[in-house]
Write a structure and sequence with these properties.
Layout lengths: L1 E7 L1 E6 L5 E3 L11 H10 L17 E6 L13 H15 L7 E6 L8 H8 L11 E3 L8 E6 L5 E5 L1 H4 L2 E7 L8 H5 L5 H8 L17 H18 L6 E7 L7 E7 L1 H16 E5 L2 E9 L12 H12 L9 E10 L13 H8 L6 H14 L1 H9 L7 H7 L2 H6 L2 E5 L5 H5 L3 E3 L2 H12 L5 E4 L6 E5 L4
Length: 474
């Protein structure tokens, strides 16, 4: 079977076994004919919340927080969801009597890098991107004056967020939900949080059971975020306030267009969003395979307006791509995953702490748990990394350690992880993976590893879809 498969900035043509199972995305949802009208309807008929204009009035201090430019990974056709929704929100707030100077736009960049005005213009448009600094800012997870501590969850996880969440008379969040791991509580309790909080649910867990973050019904990650959200809800209820989210879903086309807009309380509107996503992304699959094959483009959330690097490729492969499943992984325990990507070396200035992990730590150990335990606090608080995050548009110092930790389950579950399609084995082998010069060579390695004639599945991405892998009788 001859197939064309993504590989970095291009594609390769390769021969796979004739009995390879090929999985593809379902048909895309239709784009909305009138997305602007859908936004107005959502604001007037929210889920689990009052209409927006009844929540604010003259004198209200309002914060509109929104997804940063790591979302969406696949480019959207104009208008960008932020550039569409935020002007309508500003109009509706004005009609309710809120003064322009009492509305602040806040980029929910969490421990991602901050974004320049030029970069933000690609999402907000030229007018909003030129708002003065007091009206358009990036979240700063290292600025104690911006943060407020709300206590602990029932399991002792600390909750620290941007003060805008609790001190605004109304916080509105604008998001796009490209996958089940995004949106809902994650938008706010991660996007507007700090290392103190995020470390609790983003660190590697040695005893994780393998329930994918793309599986909202089973994911421990989603349960942790809901616990944090409950603390936020309780705190806001003391002053009679409730959060308001506007969630969108894009079509599966490239470029994507807006397929759905809904608004309401984050947890309640998100249930509707997940059901819409399920219709577009869920594919029922019978049984696991011995071998899985994925083509990886050089495109991930953290290389937006920048370039990809080996750590990002490892996370893209072992977490965001291998983790695209519900119930159980595509590849059985002890099987082989093959990723087609050149894994080119090189690090941009936006990824300031990444080279230290790659060049100095990984040659000594690739163990995600040891790396986290020994280096997380240092990377998070080292002055040069803090400065780079706050003032030089770099990802937070601990960010690469989070991503490296996210490779842990795939490493434990799989017998071998092979990368092919590149010319240099060094970055692959430095990260503890196996390098092959071609996909055909990688498949030969898998056969030698497993013996016999192993079953093979090609997961044909993009666009993103979520295989629901069922066992016999389910």
């Amino acid at each position: 079977m001859e197939r064309n498969i993504w590989c970095g900035d291009g594609s390769i043509t390769a021969v796979l076994p004739d009995d390879t199972r090929v999985l593809r995305a379902p048909p895309s949802l239709p784009a909305l004919d009138d997305p602007e009208a859908a936004v107005y309807r959502a604001l007037e008929e929210p889920i689990g919340q009052q209409p927006l204009r009844s929540l604010v009035g003259p004198g209200s201090k309002v914060t509109i927080a929104f997804d940063d430019l790591t979302i969406p990974v696949v480019p959207m056709a104009a208008p960008d969801f932020r550039g569409l929704i935020i002007p309508i929100l500003l109009e509706q707030l004005s009609l309710a009597g809120v003064r322009p100077e009492d509305v602040r736009l806040l980029v929910a960049n969490a421990l991602h890098r901050k974004w320049t005005r030029t970069e933000l213009a690609s999402a907000l448009g030229p007018v909003l991107s030129l708002l003065p600094p007091q009206r358009l800012t990036n979240h700063d997870a290292c600025d104690p004056e911006q943060l407020v501590y709300l206590g602990e969850t029932e399991r002792g996880f600390e909750v620290e967020l941007n003060r805008a969440v609790t001190e605004s008379d109304q916080l509105i969040y604008v998001n796009c939900t490209p996958s089940p791991m995004n949106g809902g509580w994650k938008s706010i309790v991660v996007g507007l949080s700090s290392f103190r909080s995020i470390r609790h649910h983003h660190r590697p867990f040695p005893f994780a059971r393998g329930h994918s973050i793309m599986d909202p019904e089973r994911s421990a990650f989603q349960k942790l975020l809901a616990e944090v959200g409950a603390v936020v809800d309780t705190e806001l209820a003391r002053t009679g306030k409730r959060l308001f989210s506007v969630e969108t879903v894009a079509t599966n086309e490239i470029p994507g267009r807006i397929a759905a807009v809904n608004a309401g309380h984050p947890a309640e509107v998100h249930r509707t969003t997940l059901e819409i996503l399920r219709r577009q992304q869920s594919v029922v699959v019978d049984g696991q395979s011995d071998v899985g094959v994925w083509g990886l483009p050089n495109r991930d959330p953290y290389s937006a307006h920048s370039t990809i690097n080996p750590i990002l490729v490892a996370n893209l492969a072992c977490s965001y791509t291998f983790g695209l499943y519900t119930r159980r992984p595509i590849v059985r325990e002890g099987g082989v995953a093959i990723f087609v990507n050149p894994v080119d070396q090189g690090f941009e200035r936006h990824h300031r702490s990444y080279p230290e992990l790659f060049h100095e730590i990984l040659p000594r150990t690739t163990d995600p748990f040891a790396i986290w335990d020994e280096h997380a606090e240092d990377f998070a608080h080292r002055p040069e990394y803090v400065y780079a995050y706050r003032y030089q548009f770099s990802f937070h110092g601990a960010h690469p350690l989070f991503l490296w930790g996210q490779t842990a389950f795939a490493r434990r579950h799989l017998g071998r992880v092979i990368f092919c399609g590149g010319k240099d084995p060094d970055p692959v082998e430095r990260m503890g993976f196996t390098w092959a010069p071609s996909l055909e060579d990688a498949l030969s390695m898998a056969r030698a590893e497993l013996g016999g004639s192993p079953s093979t599945t090609l997961v044909d991405l993009p666009p993103v879809f979520i295989p629901e892998v069922r066992a016999a009788g389910e």
